[in-house]
# Entry
Amino acid sequence: MANLLVVAEARDGRVGGASREAVSLAASLAGPLGAEVEALVVGGPGVSADAGSVGAAGAATVRVAEHEALAEYSPEGYTQVVVEHVRGGDYVAVLFSATTQGKDLAPRVAAVLDVPLATDVTGVEVEDGVLVIERPISAGKAFARLALDATPVMASLRPNVFPVTEVGGEAAISAYTPDLDASSWKVRVLERKQTGGGSVDVAEAAIVVAGGRGMKDPSNWNLLESLRDAIGAGAALGASRAVVDAGWRPHGEQVGQTGKTVAPTLYIAVGISGAIQHLAGMRTAKTIVAINKDADAPIFNVADYGIVGDLFEVVPRLSEEIAALKAGG
# Structure
């Protein structure tokens, strides 16, 4: 029986939420395809401790590849492990999360296996036994529906798009040590530095507070930081390209066509006019709130809620109200 394989991503020994989303989607597709869901977790020694968490999202079995050389992401090492695993099994589809790591790993695996890859996927369904994939094109202004003529079908899924349905199951977990020669790898991670004060990655955040040129000066970013902190866990800061190009914010926070694509539950755009390049990176957010003093700003065309006003008055008041609500006041 052909199965569905999800390449689950572990960071600091824990399987990420985007991977559970992928597993939950695979579980919803397994019935119509007559398949079971298998997850592959790659990492350093001890990563199997959290591997069982994907069982509750619908994985029937979990294979864990543990190796000291895999404690940090290695393009060559991870590609070798995933390719060997896919070749050793019978899979109708292989799913990745379109995280920073997944966007690097998935095309490498697809290239070695010589199969097409659908990236940044926002919809998958089964029609007459065939997986039909939906993904945005033309900077998000349209969506393409694809049926890939390949076995296995390979796709990377945009984070925060697919809901996680906890089925409460327990997966059968088995760990192994892959045969690797790390000395032949051309790229090695020597050091990892945390940016953004340890906050969640904007591409994976459930809530994004983003600022643009309307913030006027980088020193004013404390207003957005206060709003993010008032919202609490799961919120991250984002920025427009103009802000990043000006050196106000790090590139890791850039949202847009040349930055990161996000699909949070809530996207708060502060002082962002809404250029098409920025909209391409955030228009699939479930709820968009725009704060801008220009009533004709394009951002209002995609916003679910809009506030026309001075952000320097609106944002502090918004932070205060959110804090009061959370405090029960």
Q: What stands out?
A: Helices lie at 17-33, 75-87, 100-113, 222-231, 241-245, 276-282, 311-326. The chain is about 25% helix and 25% strand. The radius of gyration is 21 Å.
